[in-house]
Design brief:
485 residues; alpha+beta; Aminopeptidase; 13 helices; 27% helix; disordered N terminus; Peptidase M14 domain-containing protein; metalloprotease
Length: 485
């Protein structure tokens, strides 16, 4: 890692944004960001390190701000622009860094703050969603096949944040809304981690924080709500973020952080989509500052997170979940009428906010990976930081093999589910001899929840929908990962 040395005094003069962030009308480029970060570094207070390179060789920067020495025990990790064309989170982080550099008291002494403002510099350079290899980084948290997500997770495992935030943007003016003369109402949204392996008390604390931020945004004049996906009311399904593990929010959550996603709303089809960038950045900054919390809140969240990291694994693993509306509750969903600017409240029973578990399996004590597939799995295990053993000699174990029935390709319109669903059948447990070369991944390790998310063969979504692993999954044959008891 390289320390970028420069004077703090030069920072303000070289900042590529106005003194008032609310006046922002254009996003900061990679080159401008790099120059700014070089200027703002100050040993002992603000350090800037290179944590790797993108597919096309651009540096991936991590900014570390800390002024309290040993008092700084509450670790926070903000990261942005996994999607290169989603800019407001990055700009909010850079202006926040500038403000803390100029006014150190803005950073509480007990906060240890890390920021990765631009995870996807290649995509940012050409204003495209994917990275230089054409990969969607926010769908690469399972494989960690891309250098950008590998670097992101290396940082997260090293610092083990108590709180993490993934930063994105969504389109307010999608085609389905436009046809009705509407646009999505909120300009800033936030949602919490929701994967079943994350402790319920952490998820509740995160949702409480999502709700409690509303008055702050209202005071600033920003339309704010919990982040949802889906189409316009009343007919389309509207639901919270996915409960799957291949995104940053749930990925960081199962590393043991109180994890959030923030998304600001962009008018993609406007003559100037960045005309309201300053407002989006302001909404972001309100949430970034708010999530640093009060001393009492930081102490509480730190205690909850450290409790969760000590929790034993649950006796069962949820393998099939979906969002539903229990009892058919009617909700009012706000939209903005474009012609009048009026905010409308549309009643709907298609707001799905209840996470339902449809299937579960007993938690094994380890996973066994067939020797023939070991070479394909080892890079994933290493990228995830998982401990594993390569058998030097045969070993007898009690094993449960899992057979693939089929991979379902089509999008599921009924349950609003993605493609590549893995339909499997568990085989009876039996004594078996594992040959030398088999990989054993135990679940008595610190990252056991990540191991389950990556390897559990009964998950509805998993490795076998990805190139390089799809070839290992043949209908009617056993999958290369088995469950050990």
């Amino acid at each position: 890692m390289l320390l970028l040395a420069a004077s703090l005094a030069a920072a303000a003069g070289q900042a590529p944004f106005p003194a008032d962030h609310r006046a922002l009308r254009r996003t900061v480029s990679y080159e401008e960001m790099s120059t700014f970060l070089e200027s703002v570094a100050k040993p002992g207070f603000i350090t800037v390190t290179e944590e790797g390179c993108s597919t096309q060789g651009r540096k991936l920067y991590l900014v570390h701000l800390k002024r309290g020495g040993v008092k700084a025990r509450f670790k926070v990790f903000y990261y942005a622009q996994q999607h290169g064309d989603e800019v407001a989170g990055k700009d909010a982080q850079l202006t926040l860094i500038r403000d803390i550099a100029e006014h150190p008291n803005l950073l509480p002494e007990d906060v240890d703050l890390y920021l990765m403002p631009m995870v996807n510099p290649d995509g940012a350079e050409v204003h495209q969603r994917v990275n230089g290899a054409g990969a969607d980084l926010n769908r690469d948290h399972l494989l960690l096949a891309q250098p950008e997500t590998q670097a992101l997770h290396r940082v997260a495992r090293r610092i083990r944040p108590h709180l993490a935030v993934d930063s994105h943007e969504f389109g307010r003016d999608g085609e389905d809304y436009t046809r009705r003369g509407w646009e999505a109402w909120p300009i800033i949204t936030m949602d919490a981690c929701n994967h079943p392996l994350i402790a319920d008390y952490l998820k509740r604390a995160a949702l409480d924080a999502v709700k409690a931020a509303a008055p702050l945004q209202q005071k600033a004049g920003h339309a704010y709500q919990r982040y949802t996906v889906g189409g316009p009311p009343p007919d389309a399904e509207i639901r919270p973020s996915t409960s799957e593990v291949d995104d940053g929010r749930n990925g960081m959550g199962t590393l043991g952080a109180l994890s959030f996603i923030i998304e600001s709303g962009v008018r993609h089809h406007a003559a100037d989509p960045q005309a309201d960038l300053g407002e989006r950045v302001d909404g972001y900054r309100i949430l970034y500052r708010y999530l640093l919390g009060t001393p009492a809140w930081r102490q509480r969240i730190r205690a909850l997170v450290e409790r969760a990291r000590r929790e034993p694994l649950p006796p069962f693993i949820a393998t099939n979940t979906f969002w539903a509306n229990l009892g058919g509750k009617v909700s009012a969903v706000k939209v903005r009428e474009v012609a009048s600017g009026q905010v409308l409240e549309i009643p709907t029973a298609n707001a799905m906010t209840d996470l339902v578990v449809k299937a579960s399996v007993p938690t094994p004590r380890a996973y066994a990976i067939d020797a023939a597939a070991a070479a394909r799995f080892i890079p994933v295990l290493k990228a995830q930081g998982l401990s594993f053993e390569t058998l030097a000699a045969p070993r007898r174990v009690q094993i449960e093999r899992v057979k693939l029935i089929r991979l379902e390709e089509p999008y599921d319109e009924l349950y609003q589910r993605y493609k590549d669903r893995q339909i499997v059948a568990r085989q009876p447990r039996a004594e078996a001899e594992l040959p030398a070369g088999t990989l054993l991944v135990p679940l008595d390790q610190d990252l056991a929840r990540r191991a389950i998310q990556v390897l559990e063969p009964c998950l509805l979504y998993g490795l076998y929908g990805y190139p390089g692993f799809r070839e290992l999954a043949q209908p009617g044959a056993d999958l290369p990962v088995s469950r050990l008891f």
